[in-house]
Amino acid sequence: MVNVLVTGGAGYIGSHACKALRDAGLVPVTFDNLETGWSDAVKFGPFVRGDLTDRAALDAAFAEFEPVAVMHFAALSQVGESMQDPGRYWRNNVVGSLTLIEAAVAAGCLDFVFSSTCATYGDQDNVVLDENSAQHPINAYGASKRAIEDILRDFEAACGLRHVIFRYFNVAGADPDGEVGEFHQPETHLIPLMLDAIAGKRAALTVFGTDYDTPDGTCIRDYVHVCDLVDAHVLGLKWLQDGKGSRVFNLGTGSGFSVREVIDHSRAVTNQSVPYVDGARRPGDCTKLVSGSTRAEAELGWTPTRSTLETMIKDAWRWHQTGHYNA
Ligand code: UDP
Which cofactor(s) does the record list (predicted)? Predict the structure, then answer.
């Protein structure tokens, strides 16, 4: 049995990663405090309930399961909230990650896959980003993730911690088998909020800002299917285990969609009207975040197969109608 410690394995992306690891013949050991995750989502391996700032709990998990690697998803990830409560983001994301990294090094577990974000780039004048683009985050969430990237580099230099950093663009969709899906409480992300509004589960969606410097005035994002995203993580793990060394990969599709375009696609996929109102900008939002995936495709052999907007919305809609966790 080859174990991989998956922090945040009870969350949206982490639970899909656990399934992909299980399908790859590995055992995902979820370490999660259930602050934003769901025990119902832990279906593919053992579960340790614990907090990343609890070094003793981490040491016990490393000792019990002897994982060959860490996949680190656990984090607070809401841009808007990070602007209102930055201390919580720095403490949870940075102190938690630092504690995890120190525990991994102490246990001799030196392969580390980290979920970072395109929010580390900040606003960049409408360019398509690549891994060498400058990182100037404009919100506390992005800043906290960039800081963790720096910590990983320092621990590589000092202790030989090998890492693959994935900078995600906007993750969407759900497991096509319906075993896991996206479920945040409260929900803040565009596609699930829109599906809620379509289904009459909440009031109209508010479009955050219609005066951005984009063709239709709304923000542009690069959406990637969660299943494609976690496939890249399995490839990233293999990359490290093959001894290929630390590397950063952007995970996007190179196609940007505005909020209005996502609304239009959702209307087409669900064949229902989308109740929405135009509203003010949300603090911390970048105008446009789009990346190619040239490096991940060329070096990891990553081939996204489900990352069209139609498929992502279709999979999210199916999960929205049939799947749920017990709140
Ligand atoms: N958005 C919006 N209304 C909402 C939620 C999001 O207009 O209720 C917009 C948001 O301003 C951004 C895009 O949708 O341009 C994606 O936001 P989300 O929160 O899903 O992801 P983020 O880009 O912040 O990681």
Answer: NAD(+)
Mean pLDDT over 56-74 rounds to 98
Question: Does 265 lie in the same domain as 151?
Answer: no
Mapped onto helix, strand or coil, the DSSP state of residue 238 is helix
Tens-digit pLDDT profile for residues 109-132: 999 999 999 999 988 766 788 999
Q: How far is the CA of 219 from the centre of ligand 1 (A)?
A: 8
ipTM greater than 0.95, yes or no? yes
Same domain, 69 and 42: yes
φ/ψ (deg, to 5) at 136: -130, 75
Q: Measured in angstroms, how far is the CA atom of residue 323 from the centroid of ligand 1?
A: 23
Distance in angstroms (rounded) separating the CA atoms of residues 210 and 266: 19
Per-residue pLDDT tens over the stretch 202-215: 889 999 999 999 99
How confident is the model at residue 283, as a pLDDT? 86
Exposed / middle / buried, residue 205 (Cβ in 10 Å: 0-12, 13-18, 19+): buried
DSSP 199: T
Q: Is 188 in the pocket of ligand 1 (CB under 6 A)?
A: yes
DSSP 118-169: GGGT---TTPPB-TTS----SSHHHHHHHHHHHHHHHHHHHH--EEEEEEE-
Do 204 and 91 share a structural domain? no
Domain of 273? 190-220+254-322
Atom 12 in ligand 1: which residue has the minimum CA distance?
219
What total of structural domains would you count in the chain?
2
Q: In whole angstroms, give the CA distance from residue 125 to residue 52.
A: 36
> What is the pTM (predicted TM-score) of this model?
0.96
Q: From the CB of residue 2, how many other CB atoms can be counted at a distance below 10 Å?
A: 13
Percent share of the chain, pLDDT over 90: 89
User: What pLDDT score does 143 carry?
Assistant: 97
Q: Region 131-138: what's the mean pLDDT?
A: 93
